[in-house]
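debug: dumping io for the single-chain case to check the tokenizer round-trip. Nothing else runs in this session.
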Amino acid sequence: MVIGTPGAFDPSTGRLRYASHLPGWHTPTLLDELAAALPMPVEYENDVNLVAIAEQRLGAARGHEDFVLLWNEEGVGAAVVLGGRLHRGWTGGAGEVGFMPVPGVPLMRQVTKANAGGFQELAGAHVLVRLARELGIEDIGSGEYPDLAAVLVRRGAAAESGPCRQLLQAYATGLATGLASIVAVLDPQLVVLSGEVITAGGEPLRELVESELGELAASRPRLVLGDVQQHPVLRGALESALATTRDEVFDTSAH
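debug: decoded output
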């Protein structure tokens, strides 16, 4: 069984970090309790990392050893693959870019307690609803994030001008602002754009982000939309479980 969750389990303590919005998941004995209760081996992985696995095995990142996946649904996150392997970081927090300070929003402190950060406040789903009101977009609609934000982005992608197109441009600038910092540090060959809010913008949004990133970053990674758009976290979890099972079945070292 593969369990995907926001945040990450710190390998040194077993505690879930970077996900204070999940009550009941922060006890240090959680992993042991789950392992004892479930009648099969259990693995744990960050949800965005699982999306990257799906894209690496099945989608837009096939054949790429170094890439970044930028995700936006309930929150902004990223996955980093270097040399064909996921880079998780010392505490499991590699890719928690929602906490990253960025220009354009006030500097946030105590970000883990607030469960928010600069990039999240610049390009998160909730920002799009606020931006739509500021631009005077009528009939914003109702619903929960990220669905409502995806509708607004989709309307912006379909518009050639006007407030809806301005919203799409502002969103592209926000995404590219965070990506510029990521690209400056990692210099990836490929950036995969994924998550319901991002993919709602389709090719028009991808082109705008690519154009903005070209102005903000020295390196020029190729930007593509993710191919795995139906249940990508689940697809990645399945691929991870299958890989572990194959390794166990065909491992001859114990025989």
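debug: round-trip ok. The chain has a mean pLDDT of 93.
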